[in-house]
Structures are given as structure tokens and as C-alpha cells.
Amino acid sequence: MELFSNLALGLSVAFSFSALAYCTLGVTLGMAIGVLPGIGPLATVGMLLPLTFYAEPTEAIIMLAGIYYGSMYGGSTASILLNLPGTAGAAVTCLDGYPMACQGRAGVALFITTIASFFGGVVGILMLATFAPALARVALSFGSAEYFSLMVVGLMAAALVGDGSPLRSTTSVVLGLLIGVAGTDVNSGTWRFTFGFPALSDGINLVVITTGLFGIAEVINNAGRIGQGEVRRVKVDWRSMLPTRDDWRKSILPALRGSGIGALLGILPGTGAALSTFVAYAMEKKVSRTPERFGQGAIEGVVAPEAANNAAAQAAFIPTLSLGIPGDAIVAIVLGALIIHGVVPGPRLVVDQPELFWGLTVSFLIGNILLLVLNLPLIGLWVKILTIPYRYLYPAILTFICIGVYSIRNSVVDIYLAGFFGLVGFLMQRWRFSPAPLLLGLVLGPLMETNLRRTLLLSRGDPLVFIERPVSAAILIVGLGLMAIVVSLSLRKHPKFSSAS
Amino acid sequence: MTEKAKRSVDGLLAGATVVALGAGAIVEALSYDPGSLRQIGPAVFPAALGGLMIVLGLLIFIKDWRPVERGSTSAVSCFVSRKSIPFRGLIFVTAGVVAFGFVLEWIGFVPAIVFGVFLTGQADGELSLRATLLLAVGLAAVCSLVFIMFLRLPLQVLVI
């Protein structure tokens, strides 16, 4: 059986000492920053990317991915205890998690969200193991024209289906593509958008942009504004945490539905975990026979979104590893890390480097089990982390960002650039541009231009090739259909997920 | 704030900025080699993106020209409530980051952390002098240990 030999390969990679160490480090860190409001997984992944330059690519990705899905577990803790989401993906969990805590059922809420997170995570991993190799096999026949079309449609999906205005998100994507142009053109050697500064001739590093747009911008917005919240006292003994039989019974179907929604939205490029939680919550409220319980501490209202965001976080790796199209902004950074390590993203990755793909898949499973085991016994520690005031944390965050950015190539110019992108990120949020799609454009930009050039060279300058090749045409038609749907919806002033508010 | 429909100044400014960025990209791209259709030069891709930016910027401008009713909020804005401009954060966080870079090159790693913490700490009005000092010393010690002793990054504690 091919699957078993693949799994054996994955196990041998994921159970090596260093892989286990990176996995543990990643998920623990992810859990901690997930718990803390004011610092998100995007900034953390960007900040720690330079540290992975010296590691093996597989181990680097294991750690970065661990931060991502670990933060999905941690995010709900602050939502339940503080009514303040630890990450964007846990905002919905406040709606019913905090009321549960007010009713003295914080322990139950924390317990059931951990179980739901694990369930969603495992569903996402199973989808990854099943669909990614199959999708990669299909994509092996793709030429540069198909790739270009796929990237266009992937970016369109990222802009149109994400949270926020489609028009503004599209602008974010195009801005990201433009920033990706900066640096030396590989074909002609021309310096583009460097404005004469040699420091820009290598382009602007992904780490600089991520830590600026997300890390520094987050601190600008939050410093002096996140006070020390009133943390709900939780009894951390097992008796008060165990859900009743009625709780279990009510949670099974929402967990299944949430995982399904999360996995489906996770596969779509650019639609992150946050969106899946809104949809999952709205769905539960709709199918419930007692929708009035929602917002009053309904257990379904915490189970479904938590299962959804974890399933989405894992499923986001499906298009990333099989096609080279990132499933959301954080995975775009992971893809960027792969490129930095010299791994060419695309369908050949699963075929040529099975140890990377299967090692990663098995490590996801290990990471989820670790989180399940670590989360509940250590709940006292997480609650303690939650009581650290933000005013002591953010100077440390900024210091780590500066050191991380400087360490890329020992250049202080990169620190100034990160500061500049902090202001850009602040302005973008102020003007309601979601900065996450920018990262997708940034990572895919150079690949898009290369494929465009290659296609036109092969077709002897005939731009019609994109609609003459059947697969490429089909991909573009899907994109056009998506655009038609979104435009018609926004013209009808569709109240987007208003039931979630 | 009146409850009446209001034209969003931010929106118009945003639209205008996007148009300006697009125009800037095109102007800059025109100085590169356009190549031929068969072998496109470095100018084509950025120029096309610049054109797209101009179109998007105009659409944003047109859309935000229409006054919006207050209270019609999207899924995101329910959770990200609009607050006043955080001047303290803007000034001190940016100044702290720039100072870190400047002092790092000028005097060294430890002074950079101390300067950085003292400036960024001002972004939160309630951080006392004693706490700032403790934070700066603690961070300098931890970072020296982790980044210089353990990870061996080429950072100099003191340049002189």
C-alpha cells in the first residue's frame, strides 16, 4: 500500500529528535501567543522566520506551521475568560464562550473548545493527506499558462471571498504584487522600484513586510489601549471542567459541521480561519431549534467555530503544498519560507520531496496531540500568561521584531523599512484595507511574472494562449464566475453574516 | 457625531492614494525596457499593475463618494471598532524602532535595547520609570544571552 509506505516515511521524519523539538517549540509558542491578545500568529511567524534560516526546510516549516495551528487552540482562552479574542479566528468564540464563563462554566468551555479544536484539526489533516497528493497529480500536467491562470484566480479568490470589502482587498493584493516587483529583475538585471538605493536591490524581505504590517502596526494600535482585563477566575480541577453528558450530545453535530465548513473554506485560497468561524457560527444559529440560546452561553456556539478554525488552518496547507497557491496569509509566509530555503513550490513538491510533505503531515498530527495533552493540564499557566499586562509585553515584542529583522542580513535599513511598513499597516487598517491579502500578492508576484514571461515566450508572443489552452481557460472561467457572484452580491447590498454580530 | 449619513473622508483619501500609487508605478515602469510581446521586458508587469491600481483607486473613490448610513457595518467592523487615532502609539513606537536601528549601528546592541524600550515604553502612558528601567535591563540581559551567547548572531554589545 502506497499510503502505508508514505505514512512510514512521514513517521520517520516527524519522529526524529530535531523535528519533535521544533514541533513542540512551535505549538507551545503558538499556544502562548494565541492566548495573548495583541500579538497574532502572523506577526509571530514573521518574527521567527529568520531563526529558521539555519534549520532544515522540513523542520523550519514544522515549527512555523505549529505556531499557526497552536495559536488556533490558544485563541479561545482569552475569548472565554476575558471576552477579548486572543486571535482574529477566536472573535466569534467570545459570543457564547464569555457568557458560559459568567455562568461559572469557564472550565467546561475551555475543555470542550480544546476537544473541538483537536477534532477540527484531525479532520483537516485527513483532508490534507487525501486531497493534496491527488490534486498534485492533476496539477503535474500544468504548464506555465495554467499556472499563471491558477495564480490569477487564486489571488482573486483571496481578494473576493476574504473578510472585508472585495474592492479594497483586491487593491491590497495588487499592492502586494507591486511590492513584490521591487528589486533586481532576474531576466534583465534591471533594478526596479529601488529608487537608486542599493539596499533595495535584493527586494524587500518578506520578514520586514510581515513584522511591519502586522507586528508593529498591531503594537501602534494596541499600546496603551489594552488594559489589564478582569480575568474570570477558573477552577482548574478536572471535575469542574468535564462537560456533562448533555454537553457532549449537543456538541457532536456542531463539531462535524464546523469541521466541514472549516475544511472547505480552508482549501479556498486566501480565505483564512477567521472567515470560517463566522460562517460556522451563523450556520449553527440557523439550524438550531433554539436559536435564542445563542449569545447566552450555548455550547454549540463555541464548538462549531473552534472546530472550523482548526480545520481551516490545516486545510489551508492543501493548495499550498499541492499547487503552490497559499491557502491564507499565514501559509503564504510559510510558502515564502519554503522559497527562501530553495524549495520550489508546486505539484512536484509532493512527488519529488515526499519526506517533506509526509513528514509535515505526520508532524501536524503529533502537534495536535501535543496541544490536546498540553492544553488542559497547563490551563493554570495559560491563565497566568493572560494576566501579564500588555504594557510589559509590547516593548519586548518590538525588541524581538527589530532583532529578527536585523538578523536577516545585518542591515539597519531593514529595521527602518519595518518601521515604515508599520505605518503603512496602520494606515491600511485605518482606511479599512485588510493587509492579509497583500502577503499573498507579495509571495506570488515574482512567480506570476516568471510564468507570464515563460508562457508568452513559448506561444511566440500570442496572449490568447491563456484562453486557448482548455485547462487554463477552465480555470479562468471559474475565476470569472466567482467574480460575477461576488459583484452581484455586493450590488444587492448583501448583509454579510449579519447574524454573527 | 451626527447620526446623519456622512461622506467618508478617509475613503476618498484612500482612493486618491491608490490612484497616485498606480500612477507612480506606471511612471517609474516607463523608464524600464518594455521588450516585445514575445519577450516582455521588465516594464510590462509593473506597468500593468499600475494601471490596475488606478482603476481600483477610482472605483474606491466613486464608491466612497456616496455617503454611507451609519450603523451599516460589515462582519469585520463589528469586531474592530473604530477608535480615535493613537497618536502616542504612532509617535513613540515608530521613534523607538528607528532609534533602535540608529543606536545599534552607532553605539551597540545593549544601548539600542535600552533606548528602544525607553522610547516605545512612552506609548503606554502608565508605564512607570522604575518598570521601564527594569524592563530595559531585563530585556537587554535576556536578548544578550539568547541572541549573542546562544544563537551567536553577529551583534556587538558595544561598538567602540
From TrEMBL, chain A:
Check the record and name the InterPro entries matching this protein: DUF112_TM
Q: Does the keyword Transmembrane apply?
A: yes
From the record, what ranges are coiled-coil? Answer: none
Arranged from A to Z, the UniProt key words for this protein are: Membrane, Transmembrane, Transmembrane helix
Task: Give a yes or no for keyword Transmembrane helix in this entry.
Answer: yes
Q: Where are the transmembrane segments?
A: 31-54, 108-132, 138-161, 203-223, 259-283, 323-344, 356-380, 392-408, 415-433, 471-491
Residue span, DUF112 domain: 20-440
Q: What is this protein called?
A: Tripartite tricarboxylate transporter permease
**Source organism (scientific name):** Roseibium limicola
From TrEMBL, chain B:
- Give one Pfam family: TctB
Residue runs in coiled coils:
none
Q: Where are the transmembrane segments?
A: 12-31, 43-62, 90-119, 131-151
The UniProt record lists the DUF1468 domain at: 13-155
Keyword Transmembrane helix carried by entry: yes
Keywords (alphabetical) are: Membrane, Transmembrane, Transmembrane helix
Instruction: Give yes or no: UniProt keyword Amino-acid biosynthesis.
Output: no
| Name of protein | Tripartite tricarboxylate transporter TctB family protein
Organismal lineage? Bacteria, Pseudomonadati, Pseudomonadota, Alphaproteobacteria, Hyphomicrobiales
